[in-house]
Amino acid sequence: MISIIVTTYNVGPFIAEALTSALALEGIDKEIIVVDDASSDDTVAIVEELSQAYPDVPFVIHRFEENTPGGVANAANYGLSVAKGDYVAFLDGDDRLFAHPFYRALDRLKNSQADFVMVNSNEYIHGRATYTNFPDYGAWVNFSPRKYRKKLLFYAIMKLIIGSLKIFKMRRFLPNKVSARLKRINVKTFRLLSLRKMLSPSLSAAKELSSVEAKKALLQMAPFPWRKIYRRSFIERHNLRLPEGDWMFEDNPFHWEVVVASDSFLVHDEITYAHRIWSGQTIASASSGALAIFDHAMTIYNDLVRYGAWDVYKKDFAIWLADHVFWAYKNIQISDKKSVLIRAEEVCNNTGLALPEVIKLVSFKNNVYRQFLSAYFSDEKKKTGL
After folding, report:
1. Which residues form the Glycosyltransferase 2-like domain (predicted)?
2. Which of 27, 168, 203, 265 has the greatest number of CB atoms lying within 10 Å of its CB?
3. What is the pLDDT of residue 285?
């Protein structure tokens, strides 16, 4: 049996679609666990109505009396505590599953010794009613290089063109629309869609993976819990839970611990899940909690030390920290930007890293990045009296 844990908070307009997509998994022994974080809309009423319409499907419906601080950790962890299935999957109450790809991913997990299977996903832009690639889609090239070779070649050519334009200072002669589009090309995508990965592939989406190299590739991907289907015995053996607290982005340390703790895993490069982007979701207003990423950085560090894996993943942690330091600086309120520098230094001091070297690992080197460097090194001069 599989336990599908659905976390909800004021998702009345979408919860029926989310649950219907889970109920469409016919022929699979399943239970649906809905954990509502004290919604003030009709979310729970819709859930109860649907549960009555499907009497053959076990429903567990739990509603918190008060909204919990932070993100979905409390709700997700409650779901894990009552789950009875051999397998576990998460579903946000405003997202949806795709039945047939989900079948195939779950079937692969059942017929393996793997601890979990990582699935591919896309984003549904609610306001435009369109689907788009997930931001980390380029990372799948690590596991399916042949599938992405056309994109790899395209990005290699674009990188060459943009580099040439910069060298010969030709961009200023281009039409404004073309120049603006070139500026928007994501540098991180270039890093993920590296032509080198196509020429010397070493991983395979068809195999059960256990190497450090494979785990490092997986750590490049977005950390959302719903990106995976888990073997529950693995979850319970390591007592894996999302860290609870008054913060957002708690899926980051959960993702790191799941990957590092696993003996082996599968990747299923098929769109299995659609993540809805809409104005009302919690993360849309989460920039004020950006400093929480430094608490999660210490949780990840402590977990790596506990698993005896710090030396193995030290560089990967530094790259992750670099991108998130910059992300926090970019998204936090102006009055709190100084706090980003202070918290980043604290993390580096506690982990033995050097912040100036970490900062240079940031993959988004644009004007905001240069502003960050200017702020940091200006602050360093003030401290040293230079």
Report:
1. 3-156
2. 265
3. 46
233: left (phi over 0), alpha (psi -120 to 50) or beta: alpha
Q: How far apart are CA 359 and CA 338, in angstroms?
A: 15
Same domain, 244 and 151: no
- Beta-sheet pairing, 116-125 with 130-133: antiparallel
pLDDT at residue number 24: 95
d(CA 209, CA 211) in angstroms, rounded, equals: 6
Q: What is the pLDDT of residue 278?
A: 86
Range of the domain at 232: 2-135+213-279
Number of domains composing the chain:
3
In a domain, 284, yes or no: no
Residues 8, 130: one domain? yes
Regions of the chain with pLDDT less than 70: 152, 155-156, 158-202, 280-288, 363-366, 379-386
3-state DSSP call for residue 363? coil
CA dist 268 and 266 (Å) reads 7
The answer as to whether 205 is a domain residue is no
Confidence (pTM): 0.87
272 and 301 share one domain: no
pLDDT of residue 307: 97
Q: Token digits for 99? A: 């039945």
Residue 205: the pLDDT is 86
Distance from C-alpha of 75 to C-alpha of 290, rounded to nearest angstrom = 21
Q: Are residues 159 and 265 in the same domain?
A: no
45, 74 in Cβ contact below 8 A? no
What pLDDT, on the 0 to 100 scale, is given for residue 384?
41
Is 208 inside any structural domain? no
Name the amino acid, one letter, at 358: V
* 368 is a domain residue: yes
Q: What pLDDT was estimated at residue 197? A: 60
Q: Are residues 353 and 375 in the same domain?
A: yes
Determine contact, residues 46/59, Cβ cutoff 8 Å: no
244 lies in the same domain as 354: no
Same domain, 354 and 241: no
CA 275 to each of CA 32, 135, 188, 281: distance values in angstroms, whole numbers, following the listed order:
19, 11, 21, 11
188-223: b or e for each residue (b if 16 or more CB lie within 10 Å)?
bbbebbbbebbeeeebebeebbeeeebbbbbbbbeb
Residues in the chain: 386
The residues, any chain, with a CB within 8 Å of residue 316's CB and separated by 6 or more, are: 216, 219
Give the integer Cα–Cα distance in Å for 3 and 70: 24
